[in-house]
Amino acid sequence: MRKVAAIAAAVTIGAGVLTACSGGDYCGDMKNYVDTAKNLDVKDSDAVGKMLDQAKKVSKSAPDDLKDDWKVVIDYAEKAKDANGDTTKLTELAKNDASKITPAMDAITKQAKDTCKIDIPNS
Question: Residue 17: which pLDDT band, with cuts at 50, 70 and 90?
Answer without folding.
Answer: very low
